[in-house]
Each structure stands twice: as structure tokens, then as C-alpha cells.
Amino acid sequence: MPGPLAGLRVLDLSRVLAGPWCTQILADFGAEVIKVEKPGEGDDTRGWGPPFITNPDGSKGDAAYFLSTNRGKWSVEIDMASAEGQKLIRDLAAKSDIVMENFKVGGLKKYGLDYESLKAVNPRLIYCSLTGFGQTGPYAQRAGYDFMIQGMGGIMSVTGQPDGMPGAEPMKIGVAFADIFTGLYCTIGIQAALFHRERTGEGQHIDVALLDSQVGVLANQALNYLVGGKAPTRLGNAHPNIVPYQTFATKDGHIIMAVANDRQFKEYVGILGLPHLAEDERFKLNRGRVINRAELIPLLVEPMKTRTTAEWVQAFESAAIPCGPINAIDQVFANEQVLARGLQIGLTRDDGVQVPGVANPIVFSGTPIQYDKAPPRLGDGTEKVLREELGLDADEIARLRKAGVIG
Question: 105-114, long-range: CB within 8 Å, 24+ apart, which pairs?
């Protein structure tokens, strides 16, 4: 069964993470994705290791980082700095539905590959520009990277141990949080633009920024400030609006308790052997528990240490109180639920190399995702794409390769 975006062609001029994350999702959904890479070098993340996969000849191959975000694409080596390379890319854009790029503002104009230039050859084109700070504003010309955007965009100010605790300092999230969310916003925007084009026949330019996306996903923390007028602070693993919603030490480790309503709190303290806390006016309602957090939490800490994590999970789950262990990543992929959902996948590259991967978390009933192509070898689609999409013959491809226009 073809994917929901089958028949669409994406010209991917992006590299590193946020843009490729978007185009990998589009590939998962059935779109044909042509990834343009610099001859002989390719995407920077091919070298961002270790770890690396092993090539058939025993040499180091691509880094795991690259593999995480480029499934389902064809790699085409084209020198964008050459006039002939620019023409090849324009010719591909004329035959594409979507262009994804993450160059600095105006960076592609000198190559004739900016939106206005490509719109002239393909008015139906949906062109998504992903930058650090957007196409407008005083920071538009600045480069943006995930780590600095996490800091500038506020998420680090609410992540980490609170002041006065051991290890207290602003803390970044353990994956590229701003990049991933920006890639998701690009995907959402592109799909909305496709629907608009379906109704009107018109393409458009989409402007997505790392900083905008990071601010956009501050969610309740942003509204806590905008409504309450007080900037939220770091709470470690505690929640600013729900109590108790945090980690607790157990007899053999830690457990996450997510006691999200008053019924659950009553059941929770009953199992803990502290039923009177549910009748205490300070703690009876969640709003009181938030206000009186400093008084309540110390009353729970020692009782939580009396059983193992597994024993608490069994006891709380039987009472429908949300809780869970803190798994290392190897434990995640050994988890029975993760296994049952098929979240680890395996793909075989055209040279026989086995490449693991993580499944797309979206499950379609009518158009299930097919994982047919491993992340590409550098240039694995150069000849195929130029021959099939642009009609170039073997002699012309050989000439372009000899001239260094293609790899």
C-alpha cells in the first residue's frame, strides 16, 4: 500500500538534524526524497561519531548520528557552488513538490536557489526555509544551533536541579530538543501547505526558526509566566503545576510518580500508609499541594524508600496510579511494550550493510509505513536521479563527474 504522501517529490538541501528530521518523516510517509550533498564530503553528520557502522571492506562508515535522521532518501552528490551544479538543482526543483533548506538567510540567493528563483520555474513549489532565528528580525543573520537555542529559548532555565541543590545549574536536554521540534514544525507546515495547494494550486514559502519553535514548545511554562507574571525556575524532576509529580528514591533505585489528580493522591497516600494526608486541608486538593509542596514532599520521601521500585510499580499500578521506572536506553529497547510496538527496525543498505533504526511512532491503519530504504551511502542515487528524473545519458553524467560537478 503506498504511503499517504506517495507521488510527492522532496528536494532536500538541508543538513545536520532539524531539516533532515523533517524530510525523513516525509520519506516515511511515502514521499520520494532526494538529498543533495557536497561531492566527496556529504552531510557533516556522516562524520559525527563514534560510533560508526562498518563498511563491507572493514573501514569505518557513516556515523550513527547520520543514520538516525536520513532513512528513506536518495543521496545525490552535486557541487552547489558550480554553475552547472546550480542548474541541475534548479532542474530538480522544477520537477519537485517540496524544497527543504536550512542555509543562512539569503544564503541560497547567490546560487539562484532561493524561493523567488525556484518559484519562477515551479509556481506550485512549497519551499521551507529553516533557520536559527527566522527570515526577519534583528537576529535574522545570526547562525543558530540547538544548544544555544535551548539556552536563549528558555528551556534550560526550567531544566536542572534547583538553586541550592547539589549539581544546580541550567541544564540542556539530552537530545537536540530544539532541532527535533523545529523539524516537526516544518513537517506540519509543509503538510498544511500541501493541503492549501490542493485547494488553490498555489505553492508558498514557509519560514520556520529554531528560536520560534523552542519558545513555542514552552507550553504551560510560558503561560505560567504570561498569566502569573513570575518567571518559572528549575525544579529538578518536580512539576510546576502538579504535586506529587516527580522522582522518589526507592529501596533499590528510583521511581517516577505522576499523581495527577485528587483521587490518585488519596489512593497513593493510602498505599503509603499515610491516609490522613488526603484529609489534610493543605494537601486535599492539587492547588493546595502545589502551594504547600515544601511541607508535603518531605513526608513522602522516607516511606517511598521502604520498597523496591518493582514492588511500588506493582502496588501503584493495581490502584491505577501512574508510575514507572527510569530506564537506561538499553532497557528501553528491551522493554516488552517497546518490543511489542516494533519500535526497533532493521534495514539493509544496497551494499549489504545492516543498519538499525527507530520506527516512526505514527501508526496508520490504511497506509502503514514501509521501511524500504536504509540511510543512503554518499551519492548512491546520483546516477539514478540524474538519469531518471533529468534524462541525462551516461556520457553527460561522465562529463559532469569528470568536471567535478557531481560526485
Answer: 105/129, 105/131, 105/135, 105/140, 105/141, 108/13, 111/80, 111/81, 111/86, 112/86, 113/13, 113/80, 113/86, 113/89
Per-residue confidence band for 227, with pLDDT thresholds at 50, 70 and 90: very high
pLDDT of residue 189: 98
Q: Where are the alpha helices (DSSP H) in 126-176?
A: 146-152
Integer Cα distance of 393 and 16 in angstroms: 32
pLDDT value at position 304?
Answer: 97
List pLDDT tens digits, range 337-374: 999 999 999 999 999 999 999 999 999 999 999 999 99
Which three cell numbers mark 167?
Answer: 549539581
Domain 245-326 has CATH 3.30.1540.10: yes
Asked whether the bond before 368 is cis by omega within 30 degrees of 0, the reply is no
- At residue 1 the predicted structure's pLDDT band, cuts being 50, 70 and 90, is confident
The domain locations on the chain are 9-217+339-402, 245-326
Q: Report the Cα–Cα distance between both ends of the chain, in Å, rounded.
A: 34
One-letter amino acid of 325? P
Catalytic residues: 179
The CATH architecture to which 9-217+339-402 belongs is 3-Layer(aba) Sandwich (3.40)
* pLDDT for 245 beyond 90: yes
